[in-house]
């Protein structure tokens, strides 16, 4: 199991105790980072949660360049007070990997969703599983848990993330072949 019920409950609590959200991934985003952020945005829209997508950029990779327009490079000036705004950090578990955005989100509560075990994140505020083939896979499981089956556009975005992070499925080990159940 990639996500436990306790982790779903922890995320649900985080979502219910904040009024607004900032979705952010690592600087120089790749397909997995971008897909995770966009799919989380889609989920928050379905949950009627106010949110914004942030990225330090740059969007260098050809396959993601067209999605840059959905991301801001700074927190919106109308963002609420610290206690009511939560950060969802995706495909990254260390704030220094966020680039200059890290300074902007420093005082906000943060929940991490990642498949890289690179930090000692608080288990109550994270879903980190290094056995997952991509962060987009974890986000898909979260989306399906809270919303149900993703719409066509969200499914295509999630597939982009899983494809790019697994080398189009060439770099899967036997623990992560369950990704084929998702696609």
Describe the 3D structure.
The protein is of the alpha/beta class and 183 residues long. 32% of the residues lie in helices and 14% in strands. It contains five helices and five strands. A five-stranded parallel β-sheet has the order 2-1-3-4-5. Helix 2 (31-46) runs parallel beside helix 4 (135-146), helix 2 (31-46) packs antiparallel against helix 5 (152-165) and helix 4 (135-146) runs antiparallel to helix 5 (152-165). The longest helix has 16 residues, at 31-46. The protein is globular, with a radius of gyration of 15 Å. The two termini are 17 Å apart. The model has no long low-confidence stretch (mean pLDDT 87).
Share of helical residues? 25-40%
Strand fraction equals 5-15%
Instruction: Note the main sheet.
Output: 5 strands, parallel
SS summary, helix count: 5
Structural Rg? 15 Å
User: How many strands?
Assistant: 5
Gap from first CA to last CA: 17 Å
Could you give the order of strands across the largest sheet?
A: 2-1-3-4-5
Summarize the structure.
Helices cover 32% and strands 14% of the residues. The chain contains 5 helices and 5 strands, in the order αβαββαββαα. Strands 2-1-3-4-5 form a 5-stranded parallel sheet.
Write the layout of secondary structure elements.
Blueprint: H1 5-16, E1 20-25, H2 31-46, E2 50-54, E3 85-90, H3 101-104, E4 109-114, E5 126-128, H4 135-146, H5 152-165
Parallel strand pairs: 1-2, 1-3, 3-4, 4-5
Helix pairs in contact: 2-4, 2-5, 4-5
Brief descriptors of the model:
single chain; about 180 residues; alpha/beta; 5-stranded parallel β-sheet; 5 helices; 5 strands; about 30% helix; globular
